[in-house]
From TrEMBL:
Species in which this protein is naturally found: Tortispora caseinolytica NRRL Y-17796
Ranges in a coiled coil: none
Alphabetized Gene3D superfamilies for the sequence: Zinc/RING finger domain, C3HC4 (zinc finger)
Domain RING-type: 24-78
GO BP terms in the entry: anaphase-promoting complex-dependent catabolic process; cell division; protein ubiquitination
Keywords noted in UniProt: Cell cycle, Cell division, Metal-binding, Mitosis, Ubl conjugation pathway, Zinc, Zinc-finger
The protein's name in its UniProt record: Anaphase-promoting complex subunit 11
Origin organism lineage: Eukaryota, Fungi, Dikarya, Ascomycota, Saccharomycotina
Amino acid sequence: MKVHIENWQGVAAWHWDVPDEEVCGICRANFDNTCPGCKYPGDGCPLLVGTCSHSFHEHCLVKWVMLETSRGLCPMCRQPFVEGERTRVLRQGRDLDLLDSDE
């Protein structure tokens, strides 16, 4: 028996390399979803992880830091927020290069 495939459509899944139960400390949305200001998840709505190990959507943290009362502190632990390592994206179980908007 021979099979002839006339049409094939590939599907892929991705998720951020963070624990499933972890959410943005500012908007409280799951990281696989977007921040309130974005329509689509992924590279357009990246994550930032501080050296204090707290994670946030980049857009949420930028809005937070712009507030006069934030004083550049982490919203969770109130230590000065210093960006740590960029978060990896896992696609089909394989690590891709670190996401970096400067590249």
